[in-house]
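2024-03-11 09:14:02 INFO receiving multi-entity request
2024-03-11 09:14:02 INFO entity count = two
2024-03-11 09:14:03 INFO echoing inputs for audit
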Amino acid sequence: QKEVEQNSGPLSVPEGAIASLNCTYSDRGSQSFFWYRQYSGKSPELIMSIYSNGDKEDGRFTAQLNKASQYVSLLIRDSQPSDSATYLCAVERENNDMRFGAGTRLTVKP
Amino acid sequence: SQTIHQWPATLVQPVGSPLSLECTVEGTSNPNLYWYRQAAGRGLQLLFYSVGIGQISSEVPQNLSASRPQDRQFILSSKKLLLSDSGFYLCAWSGTNEGNTIYFGEGSWLTVV
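2024-03-11 09:21:47 INFO inference complete, emitting structure
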């Protein structure tokens, strides 16, 4: 089992729709969770972090965490073509070691 | 504010040639520093991390090495490149004040031919 798993996609949604990106992790002691966006040929940039169970909203983005299910997700509301990118889930394990998923490629069609 | 820079942005090197990628962080002190590699269509692979000057931990044994000669400088090197070393190399930093969030540099594209 991979430490951080994401569906590689591609995930395709129409402009204005909600995009839902999912991530599961194996280390039950993980405490911190991050979502990064990576445009093709560029470095990853932080979108948001989440540390507690529940939802955290930042503009059009909502991160959801369920530690019991070892599941973290990212919702993008009112998706725009500029949201088309690969989204990386990152999990900080109990020993402060950060692990990244392979990413989900999102395409938002006009 | 903190910034991170790495260079060169792109390089094409022949097999067997040496490599040096440099990275500097500004606006913070005693950062944790990282080198990652991202092969085409694959996830991020942690190569090296450093918690202080001269303190380097290697995640994957290979023909690459890293050094941290100054607090905010991190260098990735190789004496002889292999074709399999091609990829996107990312320097990154984190600090305790930022909740261990990792921030990436612009990346360096390496093609070994």
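2024-03-11 09:21:48 INFO post-check: The mean pLDDT of chain A is 94.
2024-03-11 09:21:48 INFO post-check: Residues 45 and 82 of chain A are 14 Å apart (CA to CA).
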